[in-house]
Amino acid sequence: MLAASPPSPVWNRRRNEKRRRIELASHLASGRILPTDQLTAALEILIAPGDRVVLEGNNQKQADFLSRSLARTNPARLHDLHMIIPSVGRPEHLDIFESGIARKLDFSFSGPQSLRIGQLLQDGCLEIGAIHTYVELYARLFVDLTPNVALVAAYQADRHGNLYTGPSTEDTPALVEATAFRDGIVIAQVNEIVDDPSELTRVDIPADWVDFVVLADRPFFIEPLFTRDPRLIKPVHVLMAMMAIRGIYERHQVQSLNHGLGFNTAAIELLLPTYGEQLGLKGKICRHWTLNPHPTLIPAIESGWVDSVHCFGGELGMEAYVAARSDVFFTGRDGSLRSNRAFCQMAGQYAVDMFIGSTLQMDGDGHSSTVTHGRLSGFGGAPNMGHDPHGRRHASPAWLDLIQTDSLLARGRKLVVQMVETFQGNGQPTIVESLDAVEVARNSGMPLAPVMIYGDDVSHVLTEEGIAYLYKAESLEQRRQMIAAVAGITPIGLRHDPASTAALRQAGLVALPEDLGIRRSEASRSLLAAKSMAELVSWSDGLYQPPARFRSW
Amino acid sequence: MLAASPPSPVWNRRRNEKRRRIELASHLASGRILPTDQLTAALEILIAPGDRVVLEGNNQKQADFLSRSLARTNPARLHDLHMIIPSVGRPEHLDIFESGIARKLDFSFSGPQSLRIGQLLQDGCLEIGAIHTYVELYARLFVDLTPNVALVAAYQADRHGNLYTGPSTEDTPALVEATAFRDGIVIAQVNEIVDDPSELTRVDIPADWVDFVVLADRPFFIEPLFTRDPRLIKPVHVLMAMMAIRGIYERHQVQSLNHGLGFNTAAIELLLPTYGEQLGLKGKICRHWTLNPHPTLIPAIESGWVDSVHCFGGELGMEAYVAARSDVFFTGRDGSLRSNRAFCQMAGQYAVDMFIGSTLQMDGDGHSSTVTHGRLSGFGGAPNMGHDPHGRRHASPAWLDLIQTDSLLARGRKLVVQMVETFQGNGQPTIVESLDAVEVARNSGMPLAPVMIYGDDVSHVLTEEGIAYLYKAESLEQRRQMIAAVAGITPIGLRHDPASTAALRQAGLVALPEDLGIRRSEASRSLLAAKSMAELVSWSDGLYQPPARFRSW
User: Fold this and answer.
1) How far is CA A114 from CA A87, A125, A210, A261, A448, in A?
2) How would CATH label the architecture of A15-215?
3) In this complex, which of B136, B308, B326 lies closest to A11 when CB atoms are compared?
4) Where are the domains of chain A?
């Protein structure tokens, strides 16, 4: 548990230190079970000042009993921790920096806490190690960020420490493996402890990798992050979805793909059984997916569009539906979903034809970022999937279709699609002269601007105006013209000479809806296979059970 | 277990089919244990014609009892299998194509069998799905290549099916997870079955993921692929290693890295405690490693150079040494190594500063390949690690050091170093006008040439002549000149005007040994920290136990 140090004849200092701490805490525990009311005291023994602690704050599930308990430890005993948190999502993740319990932070995503991270950084309460993508952060756990302690969450444990992480497995296996196999201490909070191993729903993580289990004061917090109410899908989303299906999915024969959580992609999912069916595309596109169990994918699944879905995490309310559709989803012998963010990100990077995402800002070169002033929101997983992986060697029709030369030394290319409205809901342009991220980097002394997706990795930009086929651009200047041609009345769009759009259309570099055989007047909500949460429930045969806040009945 | 099909009200066909087969085979089994002499009969029941079967042929360990038994099944019962084999290393991997048991092959690497794959392809006995890198192949198991059956190898099992994969965990977790959670059948051969779960060394794969265990007729085959006898390191390797340390490792402050299995990199490992020490570099470079437990790394470890090593797989003979150095290696609670190719490849891609590799052929643009006429040798893991991952967002000094602009919109770059002698041992030039891979692709109708590493991903080329700092090249033409400048008397080198080398050296684009303060006469084997296997054993305090064929005592 000590940091790197000069050579020494002792080669198992980490193991000895782990043993020492576990012995010190043994009077609090009953075997591997820590009593709920002793957790804070146990953390003060099992963690040491300066430790690297990986805390399971995920995109969705949160080891929040552990994080709340860590925040209650005595900063005189526990201080200067180096926290590694994939997703900084809860107030206590940052409270520990204010109190001095923690000092340094490595993370990937910080949606709701992004403003406060910026403030703490300015106030000198917090030092950033680095801002990562998810996969990159897991990778460093095996290299130079090996944790001394892992604090993770699971649904169930038995008294030996076997864990059931179930539908929301997410990041847990990666965090536990890196810690357990380098003599770190693994502590899991669970919603339930079963007495007999045979009562455990299934074993996702073997007891050999787990040191302590604690029954949480309440079930771990989990967020239905990927649920989009079809009621909020607007005609412009339908128009853009139609353009995507015709101008990208059909054109390049996209078989395998990832969708994020936007309303644009939700609209695509809901158009497959209607518009996609009319175009005769069933079985030809969108067969294999890497994404969470989106409720808006239910109509496409029920209509037979979907062969397989591998998930990063689960989605609240989708448990029974997923379990009843085991031909489509990855499930265990017990029937419940198996998710795994590390493998799903790997699949989203290397095994799929297309990534399609959205952004808050894109500049005229195609660089995009979700960082705005004062907010350090991080990267999440988008850059893993939203780039062209040069390490890929297998071909697929879509991948080959983007090659622009006859040379056998060319390589194919992943489709990386930016699907954005030219203006945000607040009236701010999406396509801008310069990313806020550049100024943020300059002001806060970052070595590089926090760019989510670089322009040279983007193959297509799709706006409500049209599609720019950037992979065909022969120069940076031409790429700029193509983006400007679909940038509407944003500053970048206004700089563009409309006369040149005709030439770009002629050359097949840009397509407007009419070039794709789409009439804007057809883009109506009536095309959506489900127009409300109730209709999604109905499609699912009553198996989907939306969280209360999504119910209007 | 059926392929994709039209919509149907039945959503658990895979699960039903799995149950059906397991029931059919139940009379052969005792619980989850298949008798050794019943394996072939069981495979004929548990596998169906046309199935996708993933077989653990790895870089090192081989599920060879399973593959030999599969080859003994009756082709009238079992035929047209679609085999997925990470590393095609054994004759029976291909025998099944000759006999008609298998038809289609997806793989990553095929060292010793590469010529025969080419012949079978020409004879029409074998159809290639695709040739992948390792990570890419695992990724597709979760997308469009989900297996119906997995055939894997482990050291031990208990009677429930819990597996100990131990020092040679390698690919097993990825293959099993993709199969077990999509209602595939997982069959593991083991060297030992223990009666009581408490006798199992440790649980690496939970019994919930495993359907059948069979005691193999003999321990699984394993190859000490990463053992390099220091006796075979030549002075030219020492020279190149000195250049690498001074001109690349020191210059860019390379902290974390991957080494492959060549004599060049073995020489670097053996120079760290001598030449590296003289340069005062200990603690400044080479602290974190992603590589197998190379015996030639022992002197550097013993001298305190190495903070951590995460491994793809194990290495025969290194078991006791690794177990005794748990501060450095990833080990389990039982003390033995934990390797994991999926995570180590991910770390090698995203978390390290540098990949350094070798190749059989490189062209004047820097493209390289190990494919030569008639051989389909595959990619292995080199392209995963030997490219600049555009999805990386965290900075390190080495990564930032390769930026050639002041723009905040630049990104850092991974060091991808090609370290090659200008001529191969057989007198053939390494640096060639055109890769054999191009002609192979043309002749066999491949859509693209099987390039191992593309020129635009290579940051440095190091030969016995000098180092070309390709990341500084401002044009393809300049990159060509730089490669030619270090290409010696190969055809590419002879095309180069020696006068321009001076200009390239002046501009810092190329460095000769003397530019790095290295005299060729200093490059002697006497600099090696160990000059023989016996000296490695001695460095290890007798813990390293080389396989018999490496022993001369």
Assistant:
1) 10, 15, 32, 19, 18
2) 3-Layer(aba) Sandwich (3.40)
3) B326
4) 15-215, 230-534
Going through B414-535 in order, the beta strands assigned E by DSSP cover 415-419, 431-432, 460-462, 467-468, 510-511
State the pLDDT at residue A295: 98
Residues of B in contact with A11 (CB under 8 A): 324-328
CATH of B353-522, one of 3.30.70, 2.60.40, 3.40.1080, 3.40.50: 3.40.1080
Q: Do B158 and B195 touch, CB atoms closer than 8 A?
A: yes
Would you state the structure tokens that stand for residue A184, as one six-digit string? Answer: 């770190």
Residues for chain B: how many in total? 553
3-state secondary structure of A271: helix
In tens, the pLDDT along A408-434 reads 999 999 999 999 999 998 899 999 999
Instruction: Please tell me if residue B368 touches chain A, with a CB cutoff of 8 Å.
Output: no
Is B19 in CB contact (< 8 Å) with chain A?
no
Q: Retrieve residue A449's tokens.
A: 């601007």
Asked if A15-215 and A230-534 have one fold, the answer is yes
Can you tell me which residue has the tokens 């077990």? B180
3-class secondary structure per residue, A412-427: CCCEEEEECCCECCCC
The length of chain A in residues reads 553
Architecture of the domain defined by A230-534:
3-Layer(aba) Sandwich (3.40)
CA distance A236 to chain B (A): 30
CA distance B421 to B487: 9
Fold exhibited by the domain B13-215: Glutaconate Coenzyme A-transferase (3.40.1080)
Count of CB pairs separated by less than 8 Å, A with B: 303
- Over its C-alpha atoms, chain B yields an Rg (Å, rounded) of 25
pLDDT tier at A1, thresholds 50, 70, 90: very low
How is B282-319 classified by DSSP, letter by letter?
Answer: BTTB--EEES---GGGHHHHHTT--SEEE-SS--TT-H
For residue B365, CA distances in Å to A348, B479, B482 come to 30, 7, 10
Least CB–CB distance from B181: residue in A182, A331, A393:
A331
Residue whose token pair is 């994404």: A291
What SS3 state is found at A150? strand
B183 CB neighbours in chain A (<8 A) are 326, 331
Amino acid (one-letter) located at A447: P
d(CA B66, CA B397): 47
The model's confidence at residue A4, banded by pLDDT at 50, 70 and 90, is low
